[in-house]
Specification:
By secondary structure, this protein is an all-alpha fold. The chain has helices at about 10-15, 30-60, 70, 80-85, 90-120, 125-140, 145-155, 160-165, 170-175, 175-200, 205-215, 220-230, 230-245, 250-255, 265-275, 280-310.
């Protein structure tokens, strides 16, 4: 009777589970992979990381564009932040910004964009193409061109709006500046919400809407019970993006330069006027960091709300 002797090394391999080594799917190796990624990392470091760190550093100094502080900059710690938070102008600018964001962004652009998307469902052919073209044109043209069109529309002497309403001589940008920049931002940005909601509406099965109609539900009931619950995630995404874009918008400066008397000085304009015309780069950098923190809070709250609803 013969017996087969299996080496201990082989028995060990067969009795214990083998280890799976990580494989390089692309076959590049670590050195080549780093070489491919390095250009992107360098660009991120130069154009994103370094400016962010430099802004944080400037916010801790009294750096100015002119004067002795431009030559001999001193480290002042958190003094710029204390001065900013104690300045009534900062809080007034933040109040104007919140009104601008809520009315023109969250309410205006979202509601108008959804209304346009809902209206497009019933349009076909040329009518649909014309409406989409008009709305998208307002969104894609440069901001300077948008501002020029609205300056021509609102001019007090020969403006189109005064001619249509018969209110010759009415200075819209002086007497109603905040309302005008709100309308301007709604007009300029509603196309994004329209496109997002147009795509989202196609994901709702027609059978659900048809079933609601057969059950006697009107348009409002269909929106409340079928459409809006189905688009909850899209609505949160739209609100987050619109809020951040509007919060950081510099568009009002092109119309009013923050005036009259600071009545349209949203936070981005206030920071610009403090840092560049005012020459206080250290204070402007500190205000920019505060604005960044507010943006991060908005993003975290929005993302948390979206996860909580899942």
């Amino acid at each position: 009777m013969t017996s087969r002797l299996v080496p201990a090394r082989v028995q060990g391999r067969s009795s214990s589970p083998g280890r799976v080594r990580a494989t390089d799917a692309a076959g590049l190796g670590i050195a080549r992979a780093i070489g491919f990624v390095m250009p992107a990392l360098v660009l991120i470091a130069v154009f994103l990381l370094f400016p962010a760190l430099w802004t944080i550093y400037l916010g801790l100094t009294d750096y100015r564009l002119t004067g002795l502080a431009a030559i001999a900059t001193e480290f002042v710690g958190l003094d710029n932040y204390r001065r900013a938070l104690a300045d009534p102008s900062f809080w007034d600018s933040l109040r104007i910004t919140l009104i601008f964001v809520v009315v023109s962004g969250i309410l205006g652009q979202t509601m108008l964009g959804f209304a346009l998307a809902w209206a497009l469902r019933g349009l076909r052919g040329t009518a649909r193409g014309i409406l989409e073209t008009l709305v998208l044109t307002a969104w894609v043209i440069p901001g300077s061109v948008q501002a020029f069109l609205w300056l021509a529309l609102l001019d007090r002497r020969s403006g189109t709006l005064n001619e249509l309403l018969g209110t010759s001589g009415h200075a819209w940008l002086i007497e109603n500046p905040l309302s005008m920049i709100i309308l301007f931002n709604i007009w300029a940005g509603a196309a994004f919400s329209m496109q997002l909601f147009s795509s989202a509406l196609t994901t709702i099965p027609p059978s659900q809407l048809e079933g609601a109609r057969l059950a006697g539900a009107g348009t409002f009931a269909q929106l409340r019970d079928v459409v809006l619950p189905s688009l909850r995630g899209h609505i949160l995404t739209n609100v987050l993006l619109i809020t951040l874009w509007t919060f950081n918008s510099f568009g009002p400066y092109l119309l009013t330069a923050g005036g009259p008397n600071g009545r349209t000085s949203v936070l981005s304009v206030y920071i610009y006027q403090t840092a560049i015309p005012g020459g206080q780069l250290g204070m402007g950098a500190a205000l920019s960091v505060i604005m960044l923190v507010i943006n991060l809070v908005i993003a975290v709250v929005s993302i948390s709300a979206g996860r909580a609803r899942r």
